[in-house]
Every structure is written in structure tokens, then in C-alpha cells.
Amino acid sequence: MNDLLKDLYQEIILDHGQDPRNFGECENHNKSAKGHNPLCGDKVYVTLLVDQDDVIKDIKFSGEGCAISIASASLMTEKLKNKSLDEANKIFNDFTNLVKGSTDELRLLTEEDSLYALKGVEAFPMRVKCATMAWHTYKSATNE
Amino acid sequence: MNDLLKDLYQEIILDHGQDPRNFGECENHNKSAKGHNPLCGDKVYVTLLVDQDDVIKDIKFSGEGCAISIASASLMTEKLKNKSLDEANKIFNDFTNLVKGSTDELRLLTEEDSLYALKGVEAFPMRVKCATMAWHTYKSATNE
Amino acid sequence: MSKALLNSNIKDDFAIFEKKILNKDLIYFDTAASAQKPKIVINEINDFYNNHYSNVSRGVHTLSVESTFKYEDSRKKVKDFINAKSDNEIIFTKSATESINLVAQTFCERYMKQGDEVILSIMEHHSNLVPWYFLREKYGVVLKFAMIDEEGKIDLDHFSSLINDKTKIASITHLSNVFGTTTNKEIVKICREKEIFIMLDGCQAAAHNKIDVQDLDCDFYVFSGHKTYGPSGIGVLYGKENILNDLPPYQGGGGMISEVTLDSVSFADLPAKYEAGTPPLVEAYGLGIAIDYMNSIGIENIMLHEQELSNYALKKMKELEFVEIYGNGNEKSSIISFNLNHIHAHEVASFLDVEGIALRAGHHCCQPLMRHLKVNATSRISFGVYNDIKEIEVFIEALNKCKDFFKK
Amino acid sequence: MSKALLNSNIKDDFAIFEKKILNKDLIYFDTAASAQKPKIVINEINDFYNNHYSNVSRGVHTLSVESTFKYEDSRKKVKDFINAKSDNEIIFTKSATESINLVAQTFCERYMKQGDEVILSIMEHHSNLVPWYFLREKYGVVLKFAMIDEEGKIDLDHFSSLINDKTKIASITHLSNVFGTTTNKEIVKICREKEIFIMLDGCQAAAHNKIDVQDLDCDFYVFSGHKTYGPSGIGVLYGKENILNDLPPYQGGGGMISEVTLDSVSFADLPAKYEAGTPPLVEAYGLGIAIDYMNSIGIENIMLHEQELSNYALKKMKELEFVEIYGNGNEKSSIISFNLNHIHAHEVASFLDVEGIALRAGHHCCQPLMRHLKVNATSRISFGVYNDIKEIEVFIEALNKCKDFFKK
Ligand SMILES: Cc1ncc(COP(=O)(O)O)c(C=O)c1O
Ligand SMILES: Cc1ncc(COP(=O)(O)O)c(C=O)c1O
Hints:
The complex is a heterotetramer, with two copies of chain A and two copies of chain C.
Chain A (H helix, E strand, L loop, with lengths): L2 H6 L2 H8 L12 E7 L4 E9 L5 E9 L2 H14 L4 H16 L27 H15 L2
Antiparallel strand pairs in A: 1-2, 2-3
Chain C lengths: L19 E2 L2 E2 L1 E2 L10 H14 L9 H20 L8 E4 L2 H16 L5 E5 L8 H10 L2 E5 L9 H7 L4 E7 L12 H8 L3 E5 L11 H4 L3 E5 L10 E5 L1 H6 L10 E4 L4 E3 L13 H17 L1 H20 L4 E3 L9 E6 L4 H10 L2 E2 L1 E3 L4 H7 L4 E5 L6 H19 L1
Parallel strand pairs in C: 3-15, 5-6, 5-7, 7-8, 8-9
Antiparallel strand pairs in C: 1-2, 4-10, 9-10, 11-12, 13-14, 14-17, 16-17
Helix pairs in contact in C: 1-9, 2-9, 3-4, 9-10, 10-13
């Protein structure tokens, strides 16, 4: 099996892709957004509950997509839960840099993070949109 | 001096270009048309008197243009005067074939004709429009 | 079977097949998106720039003459290629998309008013939908959509039933870029009987079928150079001469005028009337060379070759129980759309990419059709002159590997 | 003087100068119509087709990635070339003519109603006239024309005096293709003060001046690739991002959509919003390489070089009493228009063609200006990086010969 594919589809990606965590809608949410990938028509819906102190108390997603987009959404919800919006936005930046193969230094994400599993996407530039779809949707939900 | 230029600008062309015959408007005319060359904005106005038997009793032209277009108009009026429309149209075909360098056989024009002097145009394809401007104008005058 | 196949060393005509994709031979199954270019096309483009280049139509000097003649010569080749009656019926645009926009806009200006109707189909490419949506939005034109049958062909009865007194034009794909099905030319007869205009979107057909616009009798026909082995940046609009004469101009600018004053403008005759500005002249020339190339193989032979490949691929794919094929007929021309059970088309595309196989995954600019098929995306393979049976074997094996990889 | 001139072996960068015109060296004085292409541009176009070609933006496979990155990379180069703020402000079109049509049409739809006014000038190219004439015709927009001074520059006082409450936009040439004069950037200030939009037609300026759209502060800027040493079939539209976001789309089709249903369509973000259909992708790439090439020489150096040539040619031509030059100033950038007494411009062009000299004769797509100058046609020489002083000597000699030939 080709190494690039092994890097792209690590165990954890296939796992989250088939069995996503935090799938659905937050029972209580005060922020939400829809997103889609114009390349393939995949869609995602992200809901959040953000408290007075700008902490993400709950975050869930639903939708359809490829393994990369679903796994990325699933890992995102795990990572961002209980983070402040400020931290979450830094992670957003780190993550998009990571998958784009940007040379910018990561500020909060480390190799230990499960999200790091998505680094393999950098070898497949046209899949970056899959990996970041849920993230951009989170972003637009919190920007409103 | 280059041979192509010599062929293009034969004595008779320069003569008719500088001193055109049948310049002006027929005093009595029953057909007329305006024409122009979109490449350079040159213009020509052709008037004809065609009798009941479809014979061109008079033909004149006016306008501005390059030596080729003026000479061609001048030589045309000389040639077409007193011809039947039928003959004139055959000459029209011959002439356009001549200047385009078409391989079609000429039916009425011969090497003795003064119009034959315009054969040099075939080496300058972008000048064909100059040489045929008055002719197309004649044509549209008689087609109305 | 092999009789219909082209000699496999046809690949040598294309430099790109010397390229390796991650050390694998390139298997290019994405011709429906854009065809690869024969060396002769690229070499002739070089020659044009290196020995004959200048702007066209306006200059007197030698290079201008040479460029103009090459440009106009190409128009003649296109005319012969689709058997139009006159050079005046061939308009060079930048793409089929532009050709369709041109027709939609000028046709509507000339012949349609609020409430008038246009017939499209649910399987049209976005390029044959959105230009009409603009008319709906701006002028209140009504759009109706013909249904398709199980095979993926226009349902002619349904098409016919949509036509009424308000219908002015239909615009329909000639060969579906998702199913590979060809629209029955009966459709033009229906339009003739009901006295409406018809445009055929020949993007996929032009590289695959012999096109004869006089025999088809359609009013407009469009295709793109880049899908017919020509360069990018060039498209064709065919329109019947009397209709093009009757329609207003589209874009304004140099080259398409007869005379301009501060108060007025009069327009050049066809085809210049529709070619405002410096045209994609070298691209038009390149398309002419691509046509020469296709003719040298024979468009019939190309069709038979691609048909053979499609038949073989279809047979092999049907043997794989995890493959779902869209459109249940056997007519697939050079295009097959499919999905692997439970595996997203993007995964298939990335997986196969690593095997050197270039195919397309997505909605193929046919979102309404995807919705009809109840999928977001499909994978699509499509063939050109350079493909062969061995590549299909590699592809089938790769599909098997792909299924195994994502099963775990 | 010679300090400002580029090294004369720059001709070696262009294959076409190995060509003979009727056994004479080619002297190409028609760059204003279209520039010749450096070998590097042609070679890179080859390389694109031979090693990286596929359609852009939609595919997942390697070739699609490579093509997309090359295409988008070129957009960045154009952005830097004219110092735009963002890639989103750079739209690839097929030509400057198309860019102007796009702006005229979408701007009018969004911001203008019957009776609103547009300011042009009497020396605009047909491509910056006719698109606006269409608006006059279709929507009852009023067009006003700024006068020029004796030198051939926009009369800014007159321009200013034309602006009133109904004026919405001005569209003015940045560098005259007849006089070689540059429009004072004060014109933008006037528009800012009077709160109207302004588009600059940079067709001639882009190959000759350093363009800085932020410094100019214009709302739109357009130019053509083929006049800036790039391939045919590619044009650029620059627009300020907030304005382009606000304007409606122009052509509809694949690539410019976000989502399409049978009832509705939503549009992609900039720049895709304005790039319907498969774009002229290799052409865009070629333009990027041409920009690299110009940068490698230095656009300042190009300007100085052409300025030197123009100054020298002007001086020599003024010594010939039978030559009339249009525009009485000394600023001629890379363009000089003239006539020989009593000899039609077409005669001059044919005569010089035979000497190997390619120049332009005609109305230069500026018929209203020709009328203002009271001529049908002029001859025009224009310079590029590859021209040199020696060629001007040959040209001057040829003018003398021409006069003698037609005197008899
Ligand atoms: C000043 C000016 N504007 C517009 C144009 C039109 O450019 P194009 O024909 O490349 O669209 C030209 C070139 O002919 C020009 O010189
Ligand atoms: C059926 C069909 N119509 C229209 C188009 C649009 O062609 P282009 O993008 O070359 O304008 C395509 C190709 O994408 C197509 O397959």
C-alpha cells in the first residue's frame, strides 16, 4: 500500500470517518451554520452552545461527506469542546495551516493531537477543502 | 525596388490613383450605393444609370481611399460603362477572382484589360478589400 | 473485439504519457473533463508563435496576413468538421459556456418576453442551466425541465409534453457528461414540428461522434476546443446563418463593428459580428490542428474505439458487486459514472490517483441530476483515443484494492 | 542616451526574429496591436500541456492539482504585477474587451438606471466605446465624451465639467493607443471627489508602465495578455474586492456556482464568481510567465528603453517635412501615429512590409478619434523590448524611399 494513502487514511481517520463522534445537533445551541463543498456537493451542519464567557460548552455536527470530511468534523468537535472561542480560533488557524502544508509554526496543535492525523491531507491538495469544510462552517457559525 | 511592389503599383494604378476617371456623381442615376472599408474607414459612393435593357449607360464614383481602391474604382467605371448588367456581373466575378489569386478561370477579363494591372494585389491579401471596395458597392447598388 | 480498437501506439502521439504519476504510468480517464493534447497540436501552436504571430484581421503586414489566414483557415476546418453550410455560421468563443451564454442572452433579447418558456433537461450541465436561470431572474422567462428515463436519456414524450404556445427554445445536451448517453435526434424533429428553436450542447459529443449540423438540423450547436484535443481557451458556436444574422450582437468592441461614431455604431457581418476584441487566435488555430488530428484517425474509428473500451469496462464493472453504475442501459459512449458502495467518490479518486489513474469525482457540474440520482457525487471514467484495454484491467484491479482498503 | 536602452541581444529571447520577411530582417513595430512572445512563454506553454495538463479546480487527481496550482499561481503573479490587494480582485477573461463588457454590463445592472450618465473620451478604443453604446441602446444610459488637448491627452477640465449628479462611472484609456500619451492619474482624484467610479483601460499601459492599482486607486483596471508578451486568448479584469462582491455575476456556468437546484442558484466567491466554464487556463499560465519575463528585465527598464526609442524616432521623423505626426507633444511612450503627405496609410504599410517592417495602418479601432483628427486612417509604429535604434534608422530610410516611390 502506498505510503501517501497510509498517511492520509490513518486508522483514526477511518475510525472517525465511519463512526463519527458528536454527530447530530446540540440539544441547546445558540450558534449554528451550514457549509458545503462545492466540489462534490457534500454538506455539513454545525451547532454550538457558547456560554457567557465565550466557552464552547457543546458542539455537534451532522451531514454527509467523505471519510476525510467526516473524520475532520468529528475530531474537530472533540477538540473544540470546552475551549474558549479564542483558543478555538487559534486551533482553527493551526489546523488549516497543517492540512495545507503551510510552513507557519503551529501554536496550539502538537503532534500528539489526534487532529495531527490529518496532516496526510497536505499531499492531496484538492482534499484540503474536504478537511476544512466543517472548520469553515464552525467559523462562520461563531462569526455571526 | 521590390518586384512585388512594382507589380502592385504599376504605372496605370498610380495614374488612376492620382487622377481617377469618372469621379463624381452621374447627373442622372437610378441606382446608387455607399460602401466602406472597415479596415481603414475609407469610403466610396457609386452611382449608375441603368437603362430599360439593363445596360449601364453611365457609372461614376466618389470617395476617399488609397491608390489601390481609387484606381480600382476608376478602372471599374471605365470597364463597366456600356456593359449589360449580366456582363458586368461576370466581370465582377472575374475581377474578384483575379485579385484574390483564385485559380478559377477568368471568363471575360484578359491580360490585355487594364484591370489586369490589379493582379499584383494577390500578393498583398489584406489589400484585397481595398481593390474590391468599389466593386462590392457597385454590386450592392445593382442588387437593390 | 480488437478490430474496433485503435493501434495502442497512438499514445506516442501524446507527450504526457511519458510522465509518471508517483512512479506509475499515467492512466488518463478524465477526457470528458478535458482531453490531452497531441504533440502535433502543441508543435503547431509553437510554430504559430515562433514564425507567424501577429494580431488578426486589421493589419496589412505579412505576419498579420499569415495570422489572419491561419485563423480563418481554422474556421473552415470547424465548418467542415460539423458540416455547417458556411464559414459565417462558425463563431469562435472562449468556451462552450460562453457560446451558451451568447445564445441565451441574444436569443432572449430578440425573441422572448416575460412568461415565454425555455425547455432544458434535469441532466444539463450547469453551463447549460445557469445562463438560462439568469433570463428567468432578469426577464421573467419560464424554465421547464425534461425528465430522463432509467437509461439516462431524455424522455422525448415528456419533452414533447412540455412544449406549448409560449415555448420559444429548447437547449439540451447532445451527449450526457454523466451517463454517456446520446440524445435521439428525433428531438429536433419535435422542435421543428412545434416550431421552436433548439440548441444542442455538443461538449461531449464533438470529440466522440461525427457531427453533422445540417443532418441534425439544430439551430445552434456548441462545443469546447479543450475537450476535442485542442488547446484551452477556445470554444465554438454554430448557428444557422439567417438566425445569427437576425440576433443582436453579444459583446461590443474592436473587430465586430462596421462603423462607429460618437452617436451610433453599425456592426460587421458574420462571423465578425460576434467576435469582439482580439480573439483567441492561436487557440482557434490549435483547434483546427486538433480537428486535422481527429480526422487523420477518423472520427468513426474514434467512436468505435471508445465504444469498445466502454463496453469492456462496463462488463467488467458489472461483475463487481460493490459497484453501482448510473444509467441502466448499455450505451455509455465514452463515459461511465459509478460509485462504490459505502465509499465516497473522493476516496475512490484519491486512491486511484495514487495508482496513476486520473478520474473525476464530484457532481460533474450536474447538481440537479445528482439530486435526482440521490447522491452528492459520483466517480466518472471517460475515454479518449489514447486509452486501451490494459488500462481498464489496471483500473478494475484498483477498484478491488480500493474496496478492500476501505472495508477494514 | 544608450544607457537607457536594453541590450540588443534581447531579440534572441524571441524566436520570431530568426524569421525573414521576403529576405529582409523582421522589424516588428506593431507591438501595440500584439506583442511577440518570448521563447520562455512558448516553452512553458509546451511544458504545461506536455507534463501537467488537465482541467482545473474540480478534480482530485494529480494533473488536476498541478493545473489548478499553475493557474492560481498565475493569478498571484498578476496580482503582484499590478499590486492588487488580493487574488480575489484578479479575474481572468479572454481579453480586455471582454473585461470591459463584463464591467459595463454588471455595473449598469447594479448601479444605473435610465438617464444615468457615463463618461468616456473621444479617443477611446472601440472596445471601450461599443460596450457602453449597448447600455445606451438597451437601458437609456447617457454617454458623454471628454475632449482631448492638442497633445492627445484627456482634457481634465473638460472631463471634470461633464460630471454631474447623474454621472455614475467613467471609463478612460490609461495610455492612448494612437498618441502614446498617458492619462494623468489626477483623473482618479477627480472621480473620488465627485464620487463616481472609474475604470482605466490599461491595454497599452500594462506592457509599458509599472501599474499600481492601489496607488492609482481606480475601481477597475483591464488589460490583455497578448499585448504584454503573453499568449492570445487571455485578458485580465482587476476590480476592487468590495465592488466585485457587490456586482452581479456576468456569464453563468460551471465553476462559478456554489449550489444549483432546478429553482435556484447561488454563486461562488471571488474570483470564481466571474469565471464561468473552463477558463483559458494554459493562457493564464502563459501570461504569468510573460510577467516573470517582464520582471526579469524590469518594467522600469522596459519603459526607459521604449521611451528612448520613441524619442529618437520622433526626432528623426520630425526632420522629415513630408511626415505629419498626430499629437503635438513629445510624450509618445511606445507609440507614434503619423501620415505621409498625400500617401495613404495603406500604401505606407504595404511599402514598408516589403522592407520587412511591420507597422499598422488604419483607424486603430478609434474611428471617433480619426474623425476628430480629420483623417480616415493613420500609420502607427509601436515599440517593444525587442526593438532597437538600428531598426529606426532602417524605418526612416524606408519612409524616404516610400515618399520617392509614390511621388512620381
Ligand atoms: C487602448 C485599447 N483598449 C482596448 C483594446 C482591446 O484589446 P483586446 O482586443 O485585446 O480585447 C486595445 C487593443 O486593441 C487597446 O489598444
Ligand atoms: C455537457 C457539457 N456542457 C458544457 C460543458 C462546459 O464546457 P466548458 O467548461 O468547456 O465551457 C461541459 C464541460 O464541462 C459539458 O460536459
